[in-house]
Design goal:
It is built from 8 helices and 11 strands. With 256 residues, the chain is of the alpha/beta class. Helix 7 links the parallel strand 9 (193-198) and strand 10 (230-235). The two termini are 22 Å apart.
Length: 256
């Protein structure tokens, strides 16, 4: 695992976007196409914006998979991750092949269809974050590290649901759906490369637990320690509780 720490969220996002663009270009040059898993949420906003603005990516040859989505939430709700991806990534880039998770209809059918699609071939690069409770995708603690199902329906714990309220996606805790469709831990780990983008002080405790603590279902993103090709992008605030040997020197995110 490589950890890179930047002065602030903006510099971190620019650096992560450069790395993501490089990874996509490499896959496109190697085989003419690329399979991508895209994360959503407040932590990814500036990163996605910077990636979309990066030139030289043949987005028409990129196939995108959805990391997670709420069960029962309409696609026009401000918190809908389908809406998020369509507005911020798919339409601006012109991605033609994408697999969005529809949590409004037959959820088990959606899970089965998405699982078949993503299992057909290896994912080249996955973008993920770390939740305030250490979750990876919507795999809240204690996460299932053993299931081989690519997607599953999960129950969201209260800290996860409170995070969504705190980020402004929902007005009250009662408004946050109780369940979600999530990519499984093992499916995320099957990606060839993983870029983990984690800004903000509210993530500092989770970052410390997942990067310096033991690998445990109680800190779901700690499983990233076992992947052979992970880069974690932090800002000063999210890295604040790490040992300097882990966080490393503060880098210049504006460097080209």
């Amino acid at each position: 695992m490589r950890v890179e720490t930047y002065n602030d969220r903006t510099e971190m996002s620019l650096a992560a976007a450069r790395e993501a663009a490089s990874a996509l270009r490499a896959m496109l040059n190697e085989k003419g196409r690329a399979r991508l898993v895209a994360a959503t949420g407040a932590s990814q906003l500036e990163f996605i914006e910077a990636l979309v603005a990066t030139p030289g990516i043949n987005w028409s040859a990129v196939e995108m998979f959805h990391l997670d989505e709420y069960v029962g939430l309409s696609s026009d709700h401000p918190a809908s991750f389908r809406r998020y991806l369509l507005e911020r990534l798919i339409r601006p880039t012109g991605i033609r092949r994408y697999h969005l998770l529809d949590g409004e209809g037959d959820v088990q059918r959606v899970v089965d269809d998405a699982s078949r699609s993503i299992a057909a071939e290896a994912v080249d690069v996955a973008f993920v974050g770390i939740g305030e409770n250490g979750h990876l995708a919507f795999n809240d603690p204690p996460a299932d590290f053993e299931t081989e199902r690519p997607y599953l329906v999960v129950t969201l714990d209260e800290p996860c649901r409170r995070q969504q309220v705190g980020e402004g996606w929902f007005a009250t805790l009662a408004d946050v759906p109780a369940q979600a469709i999530s990519m499984s831990i093992r499916q995320i780990l099957s990606s060839r490369r993983i870029l983990c983008i984690v800004p903000d002080a509210r993530k500092a405790s989770a970052v410390q637990a997942c990067l310096e603590g033991p690998v445990s279902p109680l800190a779901p993103a700690s499983i990233l320690q076992r992947h052979p090709d992970v880069t974690v992008f932090l800002d000063r605030a999210s890295a604040a509780k790490l040992n300097p040997a882990t966080s490393g020197p503060v880098l210049d995110g504006n460097a080209s």
